[in-house]
Specification:
The chain is an alpha/beta fold. It has 2 domains: 140 residues, 3-Layer(aba) Sandwich (Rossmann fold), CATH 3.40.50; 137 residues, Rossmann fold (3-Layer(aba) Sandwich). It contains 10 helices and 10 strands. A 10-stranded mixed β-sheet has the order 3-2-1-4-5-10-9-6-7-8, sandwiched between helices. It starts with a strand and ends with a strand. This is Nucleotide-binding universal stress UspA family protein. It comes from Kushneria sinocarnis. Belongs to the universal stress protein A family. Pfam families: Usp.
């Protein structure tokens, strides 16, 4: 069966980068590209034929232009124009089509996490049955450096496998954060500092063994840097994104990092409002 990519687009300027990336990914992988545009469900029925034709014509023009820009053949396409709630229709289409990867543009409100909560992108990232890409950069911007936060969970193993399978040849930085209670209060104690360094070394060795086992399963030898830092996992990740921003951040959806929570201050909203890189989120279960 031909693999399927799903591009959800409102044809806005903010979605152009996602359109560009989707064309490139479909051309490189040989996948079929399903393009979904959701329209107002309250649009009068008599207006639908003309609206649908105009939207489909614009999509066709955009596809032809991007194929020419990137010098690639037109991928196999299916254009779907449906009325409804954008979030619900995107998730439904992903389920019904057995989509391997969904691609969305970003209408991020940088620095305004409270305006991100409840957006279409935020809701799709939480509920889609497949990995979701939130795209900021066009396909001309190649992914070289990929950051993957990891712990010892099934979610982090899953996202690492997804990245290694989908993005061969990239440089991976694996970030593990560990937080200790009362670390500030004990930081002046020399015995505590010695224990902390021993614990850091133990964690690194454990992570290296886990990685060696996983690489053996996948039969691959990627370019990997392992970074172990002490601190709150959310703050460690956000600080890393500011100090050493990657081209792509890839992470699994599980509660430890706040993904899937509904609170406005969850990591999801902070990433969408603060991160300047592309984002891939994989729902683990």
């Amino acid at each position: 069966m031909t693999p399927t990519l799903l591009l959800a687009t409102d044809l806005s300027r903010e979605c152009h980068a996602a359109f560009s990336r989707a064309i490139r990914l479909a051309a490189d992988s040989g996948a079929r590209l399903d393009i979904l545009h959701v329209i107002d469900p309250w649009l009068p029925g008599t207006a639908r034929p003309g609206v649908d034709e105009a939207i489909e014509a614009e999509i066709e023009r955009t596809v032809e232009g991007l194929c020419a820009t990137h010098g690639v053949a037109r991928p196999e396409l299916q254009i779907q124009i449906v009325p409804g709630d954008a979030y619900a229709e995107i998730v439904r289409e992903a389920y019904e089509r057995g989509t391997q990867l969904a691609i969305l543009g970003t209408h991020r409100k940088h620095g305004q996490a409270d305006l991100v909560n409840g957006t279409t992108l935020s809701r799709v990232l939480r509920r889609a049955p497949c990995p979701v890409l939130s795209i900021t950069h066009t396909a001309d911007f190649r992914w070289h450096d990929v950051l993957v936060p990891i712990d010892f969970s099934l979610a982090s193993r899953y996202i690492l496998k997804e990245v290694l399978t989908r993005l061969p040849g990239v440089r991976l930085t694996l970030l593990h954060a560990w937080d200790m209670p009362v670390s500030r209060e004990l930081s002046a104690d020399s015995g505590y500092r010695r224990w902390r360094e021993q614990e850091r070394a133990r964690l690194r060795q454990q992570l290296e063994r886990e990685l060696e086992r996983l690489m053996g399963e996948l039969d691959t030898e990627p370019d990997i840097e392992l970074v172990v830092e002490q601190g709150d996992p959310t703050e460690v990740l956000l600080n890393r994104l500011v100090q050493q921003p990657p081209d792509l951040l890839a992470l699994g959806s599980h509660g430890r990092l706040g993904i899937g929570q509904r609170a406005p201050s969850s990591l999801m909203e902070r990433l969408l409002s603060e991160a300047r890189c592309d984002l891939m989120l994989c729902r683990t279960w």
